[in-house]
């Protein structure tokens, strides 16, 4: 799953949102970045860094509604330890509420010198094991564009990567036991 290749086309926001609405059974997210730069998190991230304050936003309620829709949402995030400030924030601000809403969040911890074999350094969403959307980011974590991948071989590979990532990872609820409330190592 490399960047632009045959069998992929950019998708806009409305079409991307439809994948969530139209998925019938499962949605899987592979995350591999250590920092994401998404606008709706800016204020929450700033407060977390300043004083550890955590507050919910409309995005929490929206995601809880999507996850609570009767479909199975899963995620694996490959995290390089020690955690970046952003990952500490994501664990405290997003993953705890995602798990509470019903999403299965798993963590695949690695150190800076290792990366799990068979897991790409790229993000994607996989809907109903058949609709693959590659998430393209700039080096600073800014979203560039999602791409719908229509090449069947790439969809099959994404399913295999999902299975491997789930096999190698641990549930977030188990992972966070190694940290204090602010996700600092015990």
Overview of the structural elements:
This protein is an alpha+beta fold. The chain has a single domain (8-178), classed as Endonuclease, Chain A (2-Layer Sandwich), CATH 3.30.870. Helix content is 37%, strand content 26%. It has 6 helices and 8 strands. The protein has an 8-stranded mixed β-sheet, sandwiched between helices. The protein starts with 7 loop residues before the first strand and ends in an 11-residue tail after the last helix. The mean pLDDT is 93. This is DUF6879 domain-containing protein. Pfam families: DUF6879. InterPro entries: DUF6879. It comes from Nocardiopsis flavescens.
Helix content: 25-40%
Percent in strands: 25-35%
- The residue-averaged pLDDT reads 93
- End-to-end span in angstroms? 36 Å
Kindly name the structural category: alpha+beta
| Residue windows where pLDDT falls under 50 for at least 5 positions | none
Q: How would you spell out the order of helices and strands?
A: EHEHHEHEEEEHEH
The named CATH superfamily: Endonuclease Chain A
CATH topology: Endonuclease, Chain A
> From the coordinates shown, what is the CATH architecture?
2-Layer Sandwich
Widest sheet: strand ordering: 1-7-6-5-2-3-4-8
CATH class: Alpha Beta
């Amino acid at each position: 799953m490399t960047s632009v290749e045959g069998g992929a086309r950019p998708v806009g926001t409305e079409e991307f949102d439809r994948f969530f609405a139209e998925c019938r059974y499962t949605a899987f997210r592979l995350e591999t970045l250590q920092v994401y730069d998404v606008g709706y998190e800016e204020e929450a991230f700033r407060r977390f860094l300043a004083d550890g304050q955590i507050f919910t936003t409309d995005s929490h309620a929206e995601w809880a509604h999507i996850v609570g829709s009767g479909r199975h949402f899963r995620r694996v995030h490959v995290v390089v330890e020690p955690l970046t400030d952003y990952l500490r924030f994501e664990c405290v601000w997003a993953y705890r509420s995602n798990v509470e809403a019903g999403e299965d969040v798993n963590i695949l911890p690695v150190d800076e010198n290792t990366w799990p074999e068979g897991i790409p350094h790229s993000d994607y969403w996989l809907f109903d094991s058949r609709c693959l959307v590659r998430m393209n980011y700039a080096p600073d974590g800014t979203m560039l564009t999602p791409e719908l991948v229509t090449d069947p071989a790439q969809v099959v590979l994404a399913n295999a990567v999902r299975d491997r990532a789930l096999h190698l990872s641990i549930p977030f609820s188990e992972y966070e036991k190694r940290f204090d409330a602010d996700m600092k190592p015990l």
